[in-house]
Amino acid sequence: MKEHDPRATRAWVLHPDIKSQRDRRSPARALDEAVALAAALAELEVIGGDVINLPRAQPGMLFGKGKVAELKAKLAAQEVELVLIDGPVTPVQQRNLEKEWGVKLLDRTALILEIFADRARTREGVLQVELAALSYQRTRLVRAWTHLERQRGGLGFVGGPGETQIEADRRAIDDAIVRIRRQLAKVVKTRSLHRASRQKVPFPVVALVGYTNAGKSTLFNRLTGAKVFAKDMLFATLDPTMRAVELPSGQNVILSDTVGFISNLPTELVASFRATLEEVLAADLICHVRDISHPDSAEQSGDVLAILAQLGVPDDAKMIEVWNKLDCLEPDAQDATRVQAERQDDVHTISALTGEGVDDLLATISRLMEDEKSDADVVLAFSEARKRAWLYEQGIVSGETAGQDGTTVHVRWTARQEKQFSNI
Known about the structure:
Blueprint: E1 9-18, H1 27-39, E2 44-54, H2 65-77, E3 82-85, H3 91-101, E4 104-107, H4 108-119, H5 123-138, E5 151-152, E6 163-164, H6 165-199, E7 205-210, H7 216-224, E8 241-246, E9 252-257, H8 267-272, H9 274-281, E10 285-291, H10 297-311, E11 319-324, H11 331-342, E12 347-349, H12 358-369, E13 373-381, H13 385-393, E14 397-402, E15 406-414, H14 415-422
Parallel strand pairs: 1-2, 1-3, 3-4, 7-9, 7-10, 10-11, 11-12
Antiparallel strand pairs: 5-6, 8-9, 13-15, 14-15
Helix pairs in contact: 4-5, 5-6
């Protein structure tokens, strides 16, 4: 818990443990994660939280009448101003609970959107958050206007008695969504041009992905010498960062630090951040960083893999697991974790904080980036001097044969170089 700040909003976190929706996570740990999410917002003071066991969600108020009354008394006694519910809440449930408890209420999606809005720094990040927030807001207009007969404008000559306020609001949101998508399309185009220019340089891309707070940014800083914001806090990194890294083999790669994933990541955010996460789709190697000291590490890993699949990352994508935060384990647990990792392919145990295992990780990345080479004959017209020069610049030409219509260049190249050549 943070120190008391008289200006902070007093918040209480509720995790509804609905019997029909339980997963493998402990409800207590799910509440801990929700509290950590709330603590990521500086303007909130989280003063407590509860796990609420529910046989089923009630359509009107989510909780039963008795529980609603019990919580009302508790929230009033604690002078709570904001209730955060760790899960989905319908607009009707939100409106009814706010009226009954006399507090502001946010569900999990709204909280994550608030955090993202607070952290976005780049123009692209801001636009993506705005798009996600508008998509979310569009589905919840009912809570803003309970009297659908309220009308504005119109003489009634066209389309009946006039346009309801909710329809006007929906149209305004749709217009804003279209405008932001146009702006994002320009960003995506710029990013594509940058990616195309990178493809002309033989630098493979290595993307760090993982659950939020797994230590990706700490590892990124250690590998690159950069000073990306890294803190023991959920969603410390939002905007993607890329840096060049020289591997032990002397080869250069581009390392990409991405936004962290989380369980039940709002679909609006996955869709909105697809442009940023395209870097993952284009990566030659994905390093899945896991907080191996976390009790739910296996479940977090499952969430990350599910989101990668949702983004379109193929099953056969080149990927290694990096078990981070070894330093957070007891000595016996560290030894057991190392032994467990050694029994699996492409799993590395490290501490990004202390540097343990990082050299071995770099050596593995270096080995995986040494693509297999194949022989090929490339037929070039005499006018294609630029392509011929590129082949020689790559140092992959083993000889050439002149013909009447052009030159046949004998090369030994990697699949990446062949792809780059086709884009010249």
